[in-house]
# Entry
Amino acid sequence: MDLLHTLVAKGLRRERPTREEALAVLATTDDELLDVVAAAGRVRRHWFGRRVKLNYLVNLKSGLCPEDCSYCSQRLGSRADILKYTWLKPEEASRAAAAGVAGGAKRVCLVASGRGPTDRDVDRVSRTIETIKEQHADVEICACLGLLSQGQAERLRAAGADAYNHNLNTSEAAYGDICTTHDFSNRVSTVQQAQAAGLSACSGLIAGMGESDADLVDVVFALRELNPDSVPVNFLIPMEGTPLAGEWNLTPRRALRVLAMVRFVCPDAEVRLAGGREVHLRSLQPLALHLVNSVFLGDYLTSEGQEGSADLAMIADAGFEVEAADTTTLPAHRVTTLAERAATEASADADADADARTALDVRTGPDARTNDGSRTAPDAGTGPDARTDIPDARTDGADARTDLVAVRRRGAGTDLPPNA
# Structure
């Protein structure tokens, strides 16, 4: 297919495809699917070889969120029978993280329900980060605490956080359909704050919420403009007790097309296979490893995942290898960008300190420079290509596997050992 030759060439050059090309990937037929996977796999291997990075989730605080995100079992008004508990103590979170690290996880993701952290919450999470780093100095820590306020990203980075996650989830046009308590711009702003603080940005999407093909392309193009280092791709887990419990819009083939489209649009980003893979990809999970270079190990926030040992066996059987702790995940040009961002932030901090001393007449000198050292990402969801709608390649729900949705009853917040 000329389309695939074009997309591979663009992916190797880090050139953005057109919206029409991205939409065409989602519209490919089942007869073309293996060709699509092979083409996207060439791009994946060019930037990441056959390495698979393992990530592990620790849910620090579960349930009772005041936001009304329709997809979430922890949302305001949720009737989902999930675990509900307040903040884990740093020692409890560290023990949970240790299970993931023992299973091969290179990154631990610390997540807490809520609109966003208070300053006291940031202090609490900072102590947790420090406790984990004392035991596992080389592990990457990614925080996911909701919408950030001024200065909180900097405090998390100072505590030892390496990254911050805040997903865009869906297109700006469709965002009001899934949430009314905050908007798309709030999410973009939080990712930009994390980047400006020198944190590696992690931001992705959820497929299968009833969105159109155009919505999927729009959110992935918005992510490309925002330029996170990691792009988690979640597939909706329709949990009973949430407004989207009846949304079964995905087949395993559809899920592979979504992953291929994300890889073509974000060729050199860490594309992570995230929540819902067991439910929607099912026996085609090994094929997805040709598209992604990162997966979550074990369970998710409120639902159970595949056994950690099964994940490791799948990776080995498919001819891939777990990424070692001393291996750099990102391509060299992205690592350089991160280092420059951190250096810029450090310089800005030094300038701010100097300005403060000058303002207090602690020292004398010339007028302070005006330079906050922040990184401003382009506006999300913009670009020269017009939005183009084509018929959606969605299912009628006939392939729904409700039996594969299981509420998490082990690990963090319980007395049972975690799945890692």
Remarks:
- Residues 355-391 have pLDDT under 50 and may be disordered.
- Residues 332-359 form the longest helix (28 residues).
- Strands lie at 51-61, 107-112, 140-144, 163-165, 200-202, 205-207, 230-235, 270-273, 294-296, 321-322.
